[in-house]
Amino acid sequence: MRRCLSKLTPRQMGFTNSNSFLAGSKNITTTSNAAQVDQTKHSSVSDMLVDSFGRFHTYLRISLTERCNLRCQYCMPSEGVELTPKPQLLSQSEIVRLAGLFVSSGVNKIRLTGGEPTVRKDIEDICMQLSSLKGLKNLAITTNGITLARKLPKLKECGLDSINISLDTLVPAKFEFLTRRKGHERVMQSIDSAIALGYNPVKVNCVVMRGLNDEEICDFVELTRDKPINVRFIEFMPFDGNVWNVKKLVSYAEMMDKVVKRFPSIKRVQDHPTETAKNFTIDGHCGSVSFITSMTEHFCSGCNRLRLLADGNFKVCLFGPSEVSLRDPIRSGADDETLREIIGAAVKRKKAAHAGMLDIAKTANRPMIHIGG
């Protein structure tokens, strides 16, 4: 018996070909105040999460570690990266303290990233403490799935609400080429384990790169036919060391052309204004399909995301080089009010939108493994 998505967005818009789809998608693009929230519903302390464009930031991504058990080509240079010494990384108590500040100010979703977050030995304790924060509605994780199947039952007990698993190919030999490691079977097992434990949907992140995995797009869509999987196709993005080239980029429009030809019943759903993905359902499929279009159709106007890096640096934009340390003031004895002022000032400096993809490629930024996926 198929286990389908328990909740589907009620309003759906249908498109019979890629041209009508693209026209329709523009009709539901959010305006510049898309992420604005009725501020009267929030206490004055939440002003630290409102930027100068009125965007209210309710989503915090916390990188638990820079270490990873894979070496994905789009994430890490072939020679590896210099890791931050352990004493300079945030401790468990520091992570929980900072998370508590953000949640008490209005953050209602936290995502744990890395590196690979499951390699951190105290991840279960961290999940337990974060899930207990009053006001937090969702605790999520993005993982490569290599060790997830073994750890997931306990993580679920500790309050983990949702899962994204990174997988860029369904071909084991290609997996080894892309990640420079073995482990494809273990990732597939983790996907099935998550489904068996009741996670619905299980999100599968796929970075699409021309000449490497773009011919597998429809194969990934097939995963959604009988299982509650949300496949999320991500445009290839430039970061230090990943040898980004515009020729490797497979655009959202090109990906949609491939999908529409094979699955003509694909329908756009009504997305939340702060949603980064463009989401779709397909008639007869339990799961769904999404596209993250950071390069060709950015979603900066609705951005509600902030990032806390493993070394304690605070980053308000994935593609912006600006960072401010929260670790240093904590270790210098700063009280919560001082930390709020530092966070609020950084949020206020957030720009309206990131640069174009060619400019991003020229801008100094850290490797993705340092920033957190």
From TrEMBL:
Report the pathway entry.
Cofactor biosynthesis; molybdopterin biosynthesis
Q: What is this protein called?
A: GTP 3',8-cyclase
User: PROSITE patterns, per this entry?
Assistant: MOAA_NIFB_PQQE, RADICAL_SAM
* Native source organism of the sequence: Brassica napus (Rape)
Pfam short name (any one): Radical_SAM
Stored InterPro entries = Aldolase_TIM (IPR013785), Elp3/MiaA/NifB-like_rSAM (IPR006638), MoaA (IPR013483), MoaA-like (IPR040064), MoaA_NifB_PqqE_Fe-S-bd_CS (IPR000385), MoaA_twitch (IPR010505), MoCo_biosynth_MoaA/MoaC (IPR050105), rSAM (IPR007197)
User: What is the reaction catalyzed?
Assistant: GTP + AH2 + S-adenosyl-L-methionine = (8S)-3',8-cyclo-7,8-dihydroguanosine 5'-triphosphate + 5'-deoxyadenosine + L-methionine + A + H(+)
The EC code for this enzyme is 4.1.99.22
Keyword Iron listed? The answer is: yes
**SMART domains according to UniProt:** Elp3
Concerning CDD domains, the annotation shows:
Radical_SAM (cd01335), Twitch_MoaA (cd21117)
Q: Which residues form the Radical SAM core domain?
A: 52-283
> What keyword terms does UniProt attach to this protein?
4Fe-4S, GTP-binding, Iron, Iron-sulfur, Lyase, Metal-binding, Molybdenum cofactor biosynthesis, Nucleotide-binding, S-adenosyl-L-methionine
Its lineage reads: Eukaryota, Viridiplantae, Streptophyta, Embryophyta, Tracheophyta
The cofactors required by this protein are:
[4Fe-4S] cluster
Q: Which SUPFAM superfamilies match?
A: Radical SAM enzymes
Signal sequence, start to end: none
